[in-house]
Design brief:
The complex is a heterodimer of chains A (297) and B (334). Chain A contains twelve helices and no strands. Chain A is mainly alpha-helical. Chain A has one domain: Ferritin, core subunit, four-helix bundle (Ferritin, Up-down Bundle). Chain A is globular and about 55 Å long. Chain B is globular and about 70 Å long. The relative contact order of chain B is 0.11. Chain B starts with 19 loop residues before the first helix and ends with a helix. Chain B is built from 13 helices and two strands, in the order H-H-H-H-H-H-H-H-H-H-E-E-H-H-H. Chain B has a two-stranded antiparallel sheet. The longest helix of chain B is centred in the middle third of the chain and has 29 residues. At the A-B interface, helix 1, helix 3, helix 4, helix 5 and helix 8 of A face helix 3, helix 4, helix 7, helix 10 and helix 12 of B.
């Protein structure tokens, strides 16, 4: 009990300082430094307006999906899934921070300015990512579409002529491969498990599939970013190949879940038109930050 | 910190049918191992009471990690910056990981995870009462890290030397992560304390709310702690409740100074003569109320856990059915 005498404040502060050098898992504790995180990228790189608009879309996709997945932590069907879904949410949040940081360089805004101080119509995520968690099957179906698309996207984007985007994509692609594997494994288990799980998996695919096409639509921004950003339509063949293989292994054919009267959603997220789900979600995400304008955390 | 066992156990096979002479020999060997500060491993003979005590303690600890995910999980969706969101998510996820290691350590003593889960969601097992308090403000993410994880570390660091091997080893890893969590909590409070007047007030209010419950985490005073003496003799527990509480307060005082926050005890001061901290009497009636299930959020914590477990049943059944079908297919192929 000799070590419980009062210690002086400066020594305590110094001890905390010294320990702060520790690193912890895959979370970067300090302000995101792109150069340290991503080899080969210039930390001080400033995005052009078009590159920023593009980075904002991808950053919003990752942020909103991460926000959705974070809900599962403490609510998953088993502890291993609390951890797995938490991991995926953390990876996506990491991607979002890199992309939003970079997007913000064009207008002098921080990742938090972009995440917390934009309104619904200023977000550029696609509808898929806004969709509710639903039951576990819905989360898996959404994750399967998302990760299969992201895998194609980041593979192509890692060849970008924009060094920062290429570096972000090269890091993300390794993590997204794990996300896709997680979704594929669960799709197989749910489709091939019990009658109940198969029924739920098909319902989930029916509900989420209409938000797929939006991910592959080209627009004028992609025309202006030739070489910087892959055309979304160019990712479709790779996506379909993986998608078809997964469904085949799961013993699912499209007519099992595609309803003839429900087509692909026209979406509109890339231009600020969102599903009804985004608004309430942002209200929750932003509430504390907005109550304290100018505060740091 | 809990004082009674609510678990029922069947005698483990290894010790079920041995005669008295053998048992005396085994007991002597066990005592010698404990005496020599050696580790007891899963395959070693151990007295039933030692096994029961460990199962109770380790599973309670695992449940505490799992229930402890809820008060902090509450703020993941509203964390005020992306950096804080990432840190908080990682922290709550670490708690799930701690729960998993600890359940595994308990399983080496002959209890299944399903059994432990069942005990938790039917309120037959205890978990740390501290998690029955709500987390109404963001500052609670700081106060939980600084005070609750801080108290947990004081309790847990000695457990790294606990005589049961799998428990001690799990605790080494857990303590490493807990000290990171405590530092994060400290950082949250420091940022708030030095922030706007509203943020400072938020931090102080939260520390006021968590300080006494954190001190209660060390359990009742030594003269009223029935299980402590045996646990200390078995070297499962290495310091008394009051010793640990003193040590914790000794850590907090200079840190509170750095934070610029006040600890809500006007009588707190170092007594040079006693070489100990003088402090106000702890209000144990509140502790006993919470322990008896009448804390603010006891019902909510169990409901949340039970809902997650029950709503996930179809998923676990699907995974089991799928694995069974795969195995059958492999048998046919072989």
């Amino acid at each position: 009990m000799s070590d419980i005498k009062p210690r002086d404040a400066a020594a305590v502060a110094a001890a905390y300082e010294a320990e702060a050098a520790d690193v912890h898992g895959d979370v970067s504790v300090d302000e995101l430094a792109l150069s340290a995180e991503l080899t080969g990228a210039d930390a001080s790189a400033t995005a052009s307006d078009d590159v920023a608009a593009y980075a904002l879309r991808l950053g919003d996709d990752a942020l909103i999906l991460s926000q959705r997945l974070g809900w599962w932590i403490s609510r998953a069907p088993e502890l291993e899934e609390d951890m797995a879904l938490g991991n995926i949410a953390l990876d996506l949040l990491g991607h979002a921070r890199s992309l939003l940081h970079y997007a913000g360089t064009a207008s002098g805004r921080s990742e938090d300015d972009l995440a917390y101080w934009r309104d619904e119509h200023e977000f550029r995520c696609a509808w898929l990512f806004e969709q509710p968690n639903g039951d576990f099957a819905h989360t898996i179906a959404r994750g399967l579409i998302a990760a299969t698309w992201m895998q194609e996207l980041y593979t192509a984007l890692s060849q970008s002529t924009d060094a920062t985007l290429a570096a972000i994509a090269a890091k993300a692609v390794k993590e997204v491969a794990y996300h896709r594997d997680h979704a594929v494994q669960w799709t197989l288990r749910l489709a091939g498990g019990t009658d109940e799980s198969r029924r739920r998996m098909l319902v989930a695919l029916a509900d989420l599939w209409p938000y797929t096409d939006e991910l592959f639509r080209d627009d004028a921004l992609h025309d202006r970013l030739e070489g910087v950003a892959p055309r979304p339509s160019s990712l479709r063949a790779g996506f379909d190949e993986v998608w078809d293989a997964v469904l085949a292994e799961a013993g699912i054919v499209e007519s099992d879940f595609v309803h003839p009267r429900i087509g692909q959603s026209s979406g509109g997220g890339r231009h600020g038109n969102h599903s009804t789900h985004l608004g309430p979600m942002l209200a929750e995400m932003q509430v504390l930050a907005r109550r304290h304008p100018g505060a740091t955390w | 910190m809990e004082t009674e066992s609510t678990m029922t156990l069947t005698a483990p096979d290894a010790s079920a049918r041995i005669d008295a002479e053998q048992e005396a020999e085994l007991q002597a060997r066990f005592d010698a191992l404990i005496e020599a500060d050696q580790r007891i491993e899963p395959r070693d003979w151990m007295p039933d009471a030692y096994r029961k005590t460990l199962i109770r303690q380790i599973s309670q600890h695992a449940h505490s990690e799992i229930i402890g995910m809820q008060p902090e999980g509450n703020w993941i969706s509203r964390a005020p910056s992306l950096k804080r969101k990432a840190i908080l998510m990682a922290k709550v996820q670490d708690e799930a990981g701690h729960g998993l290691y600890l359940y595994s350590a308990a399983q080496t003593l002959g209890i299944s995870r399903d059994e432990m889960t069942e005990q938790l969601i039917t309120s037959r097992a205890r978990y740390s009462s501290i998690f029955n308090y709500p987390t109404p403000t963001w500052a609670d993410m700081g106060a939980i890290g600084w005070l609750v994880d801080g108290a947990a570390i004081c309790n847990q660091v000695p457990l790294c030397r606990a005589s049961y091997g799998p428990y001690g080893r799990a605790m080494v890893r857990i303590c490493k992560e807990e000290s990171f969590h405590q530092r994060q909590g400290f950082e949250i409070l420091l940022e708030l304390s030095q922030g706007t007047p509203e943020q400072h007030a938020m931090a102080q209010e939260s520390v006021d709310r968590w300080y006494w419950p954190a001190l209660m985490m060390f359990g009742p005073p030594d003269d009223e702690s029935p299980n402590s003496a045996q646990s200390m003799a078995w070297k499962i527990k290495r310091f008394s409740n009051d010793e640990l509480r003193q040590r914790f307060v000794g850590m907090l005082v200079p840190q509170a100074e750095v934070l610029g926050l006040t600890l809500p005890d006007p009588n707190l001061r170092w007594n040079e003569e006693r070489q100990a901290w003088d402090m106000s009497e702890i209000d144990w009636t509140e502790f006993n109320e919470v322990l008896a299930g009448r804390g603010p959020a006891n019902a909510q914590r169990i409901q949340h856990r039970r809902d997650a477990h029950e709503e996930g049943a179809w998923v676990r059944e699907a995974a089991a059915a799928y694995a069974e079908k795969q195995a059958a297919r492999e048998r046919v192929a072989a």
